[in-house]
Amino acid sequence: MIEIEAQPWRQMVEHARATYPNECCGAMLGRIEDGNKRVVVAMALENASAGPQAARYELRPEDLLAADREARRHNMDLVGIYHSHPDCGAYFSETDLKNSCPWYSFVVLSIQKGEFDHANSWLPNPEQTKAEKEELKHA
Amino acid sequence: MAKVLIPTPLRQYADKNDTVELGGTTVGEILGKLTSQYQDLRRQLYSDEGKLRSFVNVYINDEDIRYLKKEATPVKEGDTISIVPSIAGGAPVVEAPAQTATLSKEEILRYSRHLIMPEVGMEGQLKLKSAKVLMIGAGGLGAPLGMYLAAAGVGRIGIVDFDVVDFTNLQRQVIHGTSDVGRKKLDSAADTMHEINPYVQIDKHETALSSENALDLFKDYDIIVDGTDNFPTRYLVNDACVLTGKPNVYGSIFRFEGQATVFAYQGGPCYRCLYPEPPPPGLVPSCAEGGVLGILPGTIGLIQATETVKLILGKGEPLVGRLLLYDALAMRFRELKLRKNPECPVCGAHPTVTKLIDYQQFCGIPQHEPAPAPGVAEGEIDPVEVKAKIDRGDRFVLIDVREPHEYQICSIPSAKLIPLGELPKRVNELNSADEIVAHCKSGMRSAKAVEFLKQAGFKKVKNMKGGILAWSDKVDPRVPKY
Lengths: 139, 482
Description:
Helix content of chain B: 25-40%
Radius of gyration of chain A: 14 Å
Largest sheet of chain B: 8 strands, mixed
Strand content of chain B: 15-25%
Strand order of the largest sheet of chain A: 8-7-6-5-2-3-1-9
Oligomer: heterodimer
Structural class of chain A: alpha/beta
CATH topology of chain A: Cytidine Deaminase, domain 2
CATH class of chain A: Alpha Beta
CATH topology of the largest domain in chain B: Rossmann fold
Number of domains of chain A: 1
Number of strands of chain A: 9
Number of domains of chain B: 3
Distance between the termini of chain A: 14 Å
Number of strands of chain B: 19
Largest sheet of chain A: 8 strands, mixed
């Protein structure tokens, strides 16, 4: 289960709306207690994808490294990655799966016509062949 | 000992440690020790074939080991090794264009040697067909590029050029032939490319690339290939690529040497990370001034074409963060590592260049060259007058300040050869009491020679206007122009 606190959730939704019609992406920092993830801070990261970003995002490893360091400094963990799907459902696409990593929760926010619609969290497997839906709680 | 930082989700496989200290001389050795100590971690980092999983990046301190010696990267005491995943994704609509493209029976036959390679195959060939590439220039680099990109089946190729084919182009610009002299390079190049492959679309942009039109031109293409040979355009192409998020496949050539790399690709360095400032005007000669081995742009242009095709296919290791240097005389390739400059004015964290600027001014080139004064200015002499002086038997010294290899191409019989660079040490061969006329190819270098001699105390020195080219036009048409 992943639970996102009110403030980071507002920031994530705002980030996704502001970046529409392009995809946004970022990191979620927080704590893991008894296998449950609690997101305390949302960190917007640059979409580094070359070319049109309406249906593509890419995180720079350097930025992820920086996010991980930031988490360590505040005694937190990097627990997940979020990105938006403009005018498209919050499922884990083939592209998402092929470029995923099994270590984190992947929260996808569906933005329809510029407004937040729904969100899901996904846990991909190491072979990048499928992703399991994770229970998501947000404000 | 080196520190290995374990990312949060992997700590459960490493006895909950966030850091593990291990000894070893290479990254591979340390990762080997780590994963034999923690067997469960191994499955997370390595595939069944024993290769690092595609999403695993390893950093030593702040450097990605892919850009060092990969797993053979040496490790020093106190280094920090980090494991960082690579993550990307997106909604599926991006795949749609490739789905709509199909190949006809004729195209399948034409591309059969691509289609039977697993790295290209039908999927790759359709990517090529859906790709849109913009070439800046249809000259030395553009010639092999245009021909091979068309042959490879790149579906849409734009060319920006406003020049006309002339005889001096034919030594290297193999996309144009002798019968094309006088035609627009755009027309000549497009004809050749369509002759090679009629299935590709060619967009002819007859214009000089400028700050006003660059963003508009770039927006319809996926990849920009820079085949220009002047600094203002190089900076313009670079900045426009960074601003529009398109990769800049770069090449440059001079005499026997060339360079190539891919700038501004997915967070990699840009041209300004390498050269934040342009060289002073005139310091680096162009091909027209310095010459170029005709074959050289073939080699460099084809490296650009190869990188372009790799980017389209998404295969192999792109030439990003690496500057490839080619020395034709030694027949050697070398690689320099390029780093992204975090303070880069255009692609850094806090860019100061956020829109296109005046690149002529940035490179110190005056916007409007002062028009040459009509007639003969003070300190200048017309070639016809020089001929008259020779015929009258006037007492004067004619010096030719060109290089010996230029003197071998053509010369004026009574001229004494003193190359501009040797003038300071050979000035004692001249007498300040004599009247002196200096000439070169077109009058630029001899103007510098006249300036130098005047400062050295010579009063009666003149520059032959227009150089030996004007001599050929006005005095003796048998003298070849080069």
